[in-house]
Design a protein that fits this description.
Length: 305
């Protein structure tokens, strides 16, 4: 979920949290409804950037302004087939880090730790509100910050992690010091195993199909450190997962295709997709997806219902 889809996905992320927060506020069970939401967000590729905004509690206006200030054509830059051959980056002047920095600033993973204590020096040992899957040529799929030690790190600027997380092989350059780390969707396009069996709302740029992607077969042609990955599962053959997913129904593979819509329009479209989906569900339907506490429902209320 990167490239031209960034504004759309950012809108979906913010819209989902806003709609759930509004539902929570309307609940008559004020015991839990007054506490702000603090979701744990797992973001793959461009979804990691939207997820970081959600983990920070960013407002709709703030997130939308960032999308407007960083249009996708500026974030990607010009195509260069020469650079694809010589530097293995179709967009050698991509400004993904500028966009990532606009979202997270100088924060490291320590700043996303779910603890009441001041940030510590070892965020991989603490539960985090932001989980970023990346793909390591050496280790396979890694979850940051948990797997930072496998990269020889104790902490990392999240802006650098976001550059690595959105690095489509053959398309975008590496983050500094992370030359063999790539987009987390290289192996698992939708890594639902990360949060299963916990309740989770999934956001997907496309539709349920295809259930599997074969694009990983050409990875060695795109970068010499990568091995072929014949199966990249999209697990929406599972009915329960389909029913807990908000689909944007974009054409499959559209992430790097040009769009006629402005960033603000794309953001608003994603926002409306997510809010309309949540508003169309009853509390009973939603509590099986996100858990009753997200809706401000007490255990007693759920048991009585």
């Amino acid at each position: 979920m990167a490239g031209r889809s960034l504004s759309l996905m950012a809108g979906m992320n913010i819209g989902a949290v806003d709609a759930l927060s509004a539902r929570r506020a309307r609940s008559s069970r004020q015991q839990l409804a007054t506490a702000p939401l603090q979701p744990v967000v797992v973001g793959v590729s461009g979804g990691a950037i939207g997820g970081a905004a959600v983990a920070l509690g960013m407002t709709r206006d703030h997130a939308r302004q960032i999308a407007v200030d960083h249009p996708e054509e500026n974030v990607l830059g010009r195509k260069s087939f020469r650079a694809l051959l010589t530097r293995r980056a179709l967009y050698p002047e991509a400004r993904v880090r500028e966009l990532a920095y606009a979202v997270v600033g100088d924060r490291t993973f320590a700043d996303f730790a779910l603890t009441s204590q001041p940030p510590g020096p070892r965020p991989h040992e603490t539960a985090s509100s932001l989980i970023i899957p990346v793909y390591s040529a050496k280790h396979g799929t890694l979850l940051l910050p948990r797997d930072l030690p496998k990269l020889g790190l104790t902490d990392l600027p999240v802006a650098d992690a976001l550059v690595a997380a959105t690095r489509i092989p053959g398309a975008l350059p590496a983050a500094a010091g992370l030359e063999d780390v790539f987009d987390g969707g290289c192996q698992y396009r939708v890594p639902h195993e990360v949060f299963s069996p916990h309740p989770a709302l999934v956001l997907d740029l496309y539709g349920p199909r295809p259930y599997n992607s074969r694009g990983g077969l050409i990875f060695p042609l795109l970068h010499p450190s990568l091995r072929p990955i014949p199966n990249r599962p999209r697990p929406f053959h599972d009915r329960s997962l389909r029913e807990s997913t908000i689909f944007a129904h974009q054409p499959y593979g559209s992430a790097l295709q040009a769009t006629a819509r402005e960033p603000g329009q794309l953001f608003d479209c994603g926002y409306d997709i997510a809010t309309s989906w949540i508003d169309s569900r009853t509390d009973e339907q939603l509590r099986n997806i996100v858990g009753p506490h997200v809706l401000g429902l007490s255990d007693e209320t759920v048991a009585a219902g």
